[in-house]
Amino acid sequence: MGKARNVMMIVAEGLKKSYTSGGRPLPVLRSLDLSIEAESFVSIVGPSGSGKTTLLGLLAGLDEPTSGRVLLDGEDIFSFSEDGRAAFRAERVGFVFQTFHLLPTLTALENVLVPLELRGEGHSARDSAESLLERVGLGGRLDHFPSQLSGGEQQRVALARAFSNRPRILFADEPTGNLDQETGASIVEMIEELNREANTTLVLVTHDLAVAERADRILTLGGGHVIEDRPGRGSG
Ligand SMILES: Nc1ncnc2c1ncn2[C@@H]1O[C@H](COP(=O)(O)OP(=O)(O)O)[C@@H](O)[C@H]1O
Ligand SMILES: [Mg+2]
Predict the structure, then answer these.
(1) Which atom of ligand 1 is found nearest the CA of 205?
(2) Is the CB of 224 under 6 A from ligand 1?
(3) What is the DSSP string of 168-205?
(4) What is the Å distance from ligand 2's center to 19 Cα?
(5) Is the per-residue pLDDT at 167 higher than 60?
(6) Which residues pair with residue 45 across a beta bridge?
(7) CB-based contact 202:188 (threshold 8 Å)
């Protein structure tokens, strides 16, 4: 399948988010607009506190904006109920976090099975979860609990989990932030490979400029807006 260029997978329009701090509104995003093409790889950078995690949470429908719209794959996700959004995410969205977010009482295999079970996929699930863990080099660690895995291995389980529902969009929030340079680089390469194979749209937040440069496009957040939008090395 070729790249479906110019089809917008993610559109944000007039996106605003304020928190309340000490009884006062704390504006974090101030009428932010962006469009991200299907199957592209976009990095988001910006100083700590600039709202990168807030933006990703809104784009993924994990949190609600103060105002504004998000269209994912053409769907206005905040027109759905919270349950509707959860179902939409289970169908089309994957998320990878800095701190892995694995369930500590479940094995590697069981963690990868969670999204598949949420989708109501039965006996085929185990085979696809196993092959995803093999794909990320953990075929020999299926029954390990998170505490028995290194940080890099835990993030690889989280990647297998994120791709298990074959998402159209993958959001990754500082996925290398808790890993050493070399392990982080291998995680990014793995995300890129899985992204290409599955024609996923990838949105990755990072403060590592070398990682950000690998994208097709780099967006910089500041003052509640996108203050820079430039091509990365992946665009060449
Ligand atoms: N749940 C929350 N309640 C109140 N303030 C928050 C909350 N989440 C984030 N903030 C504030 O919003 C700002 C942006 O945070 P965040 O999106 O985490 O930034 P980044 O990921 O770029 O470091 C910060 O000033 C932070 O303190
Ligand atoms: Mg953050």
Answers:
(1) 21
(2) no
(3) SEEEEESTTTTS-HHHHHHHHHHHHHHHHHHT-EEEEE
(4) 15
(5) yes
(6) 220
(7) no
Distance between Cα 221 and ligand 1 center (Å)? 13
What integer is the mean pLDDT of 152-166? 94
- Provide the CATH number for the domain formed by 8-235 in this structure: 3.40.50.300
Query: Which amino acid, 36?
Result: I
Query: Positive or negative, the Cα torsion across 162, 71, 82, 58?
Result: positive
Cα dihedral: 100, 102, 104, 110 (round 10): -150
The confidence score (pLDDT) of residue 2 equals 47
Domain ranges of the chain: 8-235
Question: How far does residue 49's CA lie from ligand 1's centre (Å)?
Answer: 6
- Token pair recorded at residue 225: 């807006």
Using an 8 Å Cβ cutoff, are 205 and 173 in contact? Answer: yes
Please tell me the pTM assigned to this model. Answer: 0.94
SS3 call for 57:
helix
- pLDDT digits over 63-97, tens only? 999 999 999 999 999 999 999 999 999 999 999 99
User: 48 in ligand 1 pocket by Cβ < 6 Å?
Assistant: yes
Tell me the pLDDT tens digit for each residue of 96-131.
999 999 999 999 999 999 988 877 776 788 999 999
Query: Does 49 contact ligand 1 (Cβ within 6 A)?
Result: yes
Whether 52 is in the pocket of ligand 1, judged by its Cβ within 6 Å, is yes
